[in-house]
Please model this.
Amino acid sequence: MTESAELNTEHRHWILIACMLAMFMAAIEVTIVATAMPTIIAELGGFSQFGWVFSIYLLTQAVSVPLYGRLADMWGRKRLFFIGVSLFLMGSILCGFAHTMTWLILFRAFQGLGAGAIMPLTSTIVADIYSPRERANVQGWLSSVWGVAAIIGPLSGAWLVQHFNWSVIFWVNVPIGLFSMLLLARFLPAREHHKGATLNLTGSCWLMICVTALLVALLQADALGYWLLAFLLLALLAGWQLKQHEQRAEAPLFPLAIWRSRLILAGNAGNLIIGATMMGISAFLPTWIQGITGGTPLQAGSALAMMSIGWPLASTLSGRLMLVTSYRFTAQLGAMLLIAGSALLLLLRADSSIMQAGLTAFVIGTGMGMTSTTFLVSVQNHAHYDIRGICTASIMFSRMLGSAIGTALMGAVLNFNLAQRLPQAHDPMQQIMSHESRQSLSESTLHQWTDQIAASLHWVFVVALAIAMLTLWIAWLMPRQRPEAE
Model:
């Protein structure tokens, strides 16, 4: 078997359901844990380590994504899927038994190693069993999982910690994962892996060092101080060594076809930009709602959920639009929506309504859904079966890396502006976000701080808009062709 059409079976819908369940399991993990963290901290303590519960999960997930993609091309999707989901479920079970914050962080790292397999492999498996023309529509179904998870996650997380021990939020994924594995074990046909193919261990080590150092530098920039330069230098040196090794290796970790294809490079660059732009709204729109307008966490979450609703709707629409227009037209339309939504962020004022914030998030979500689906489908249709796994994984990795870069860049812009505008204030953002501290501020101080913080966030949104505008150029690199059936 060499192409996707040859992997088609009469049980494709069961395979799709299994992949959607696995993707739902990974998607809901983020929101459900975030909702339960105050309860977990109250019992385990260790508030100073709070950020690492999320950072270590993202770190190990991002590091492992390219490795899973390459191994899936060598050993087969089915075997790697079972390995990844098993690691994820084992990590989930162990997280529920953690009795200190340190152990929870360690088990979250283990969980992230498994999560690195879920996103690229589910998308690759679906691409294998559907033709290029069908993939455009099916990706809309996969994207809808994130919209559902964004709504169900916070609600179910709050309900579970209210009625059960917090450990249950980690264990609730176990039956979902087992059922997904059972479906794929029954219906997904196995495929022989490449004879004599071996993993490029040296290249893998350099990749892990490079990615780990870079993500630690980006995710923990505030806490590292001067050590930040050391981590960035280590990432640069490891990246150079990886490049040198890949040029000499007989079996490079990233096949040369990836670097020679303008379309694949454009798809990765597009997802890097999408990931960075996404943080402008995911991290800082809730900050605006709670800090500037004095809204509640529920209001902030509701506005942000509109992005997760717009994403799958636009993803489904883009699948149909690609079939009647082209990759380039669909990507350019999505880019313009993303730019328009980012521009709407600049119109937010202290008296803006939650409805206006939600509409802004929805427009940004539609732009992200349309562009990300177009980039992914075009790369999967362009890539040969033997490298489709690593090509899909590179798309996922680019978005994760973009999110980390966007968070660090926009966080630095915010901190710089606050230092310039409120030099005498001690952690004004924390004080204005806390309801108790906010109430203790005088009316004049509160007015001054909200004005200056709003101006600082305005510059964060300017950066987000500037990054979003790059997607229009990336979209222009897409070919003027439609997905065609094989």
Q: What stands out?
A: Residues 385-421 form the longest helix (37 residues). Residues 147 and 309 are 5 Å apart (CA to CA).
